[in-house]
């Protein structure tokens, strides 16, 4: 077959397959919401909600007083990762429980990116924290890594509380 026939065939294949390829490309009309407002009234003490924020899973937990107390007793020396990993604070902030909360006035509210810092699985909520069943990482009730292969604490995304709303982003 001559070279020109090959070129013509390639062009025809390209034109025919373009509509299928175009469907796979990112859609410019999908609006990604920069901020997410979550009504906190529906999250009872001791309960957590998992939501999707622009494709990122987020945990919001309403911690009980015993959960807060036990998290506050953990010493920095006992932690695998001593940094708060809180996008609302300076990057050098330490992983004290108070530095992990959504804001200092509401120590019960914990907001976390629900992505294990090992390889990104979504950990399961347990009574004493979060367990990543993929390879056995365990995070405490403050989202700090306690054991397993995960290197860092779960990240606290940018968030602030306004009355009964948690604004993420
Ligand atoms: S992804 Fe969580 S422990 Fe590996």
UniProtKB/TrEMBL annotation:
Catalytic activity: a quinol + 2 Fe(III)-[cytochrome c](out) = a quinone + 2 Fe(II)-[cytochrome c](out) + 2 H(+)(out)
Keywords: 2Fe-2S, Disulfide bond, Electron transport, Iron, Iron-sulfur, Membrane, Metal-binding, Oxidoreductase, Transmembrane, Transmembrane helix, Transport
A Pfam family: Rieske
Cofactor binding notes: Binds 1 [2Fe-2S] cluster per subunit.
Localisation: Membrane
Major location category of this protein: membrane
GO molecular function: oxidoreductase activity
Membrane-protein topology: Single-pass membrane protein
Enzyme class: translocase
Quaternary assembly: The main subunits of complex b-c1 are: cytochrome b, cytochrome c1 and the Rieske protein.
Protein name (database record): Ubiquinol-cytochrome c reductase iron-sulfur subunit
Organism: Candidatus Hodgkinia cicadicola
Gene: petA
């Amino acid at each position: 077959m001559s070279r020109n026939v090959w070129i013509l065939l390639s062009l025809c294949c390209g034109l025919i397959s373009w509509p299928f390829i175009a469907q796979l490309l990112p859609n410019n009309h999908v609006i990604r919401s920069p901020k997410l407002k979550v009504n906190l009234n529906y999250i009872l003490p001791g309960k957590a909600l998992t939501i999707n924020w622009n494709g990122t899973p987020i945990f919001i937990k309403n911690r009980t007083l015993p959960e807060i107390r036990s998290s506050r007793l953990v010493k920095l020396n006992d932690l695998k990762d001593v940094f708060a990993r809180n996008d609302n604070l300076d990057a050098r902030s330490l992983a004290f429980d108070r530095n992990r909360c959504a804001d200092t006035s509401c120590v019960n509210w914990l907001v976390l990116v629900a992505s294990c810092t090992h390889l990104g699985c979504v950990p399961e909520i347990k009574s004493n924290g979060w367990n990543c069943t993929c390879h056995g990482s365990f995070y405490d009730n403050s989202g700090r890594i306690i054991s397993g292969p995960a290197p860092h604490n779960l990240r606290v995304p940018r968030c602030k509380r306004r009355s009964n709303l948690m604004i993420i982003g």
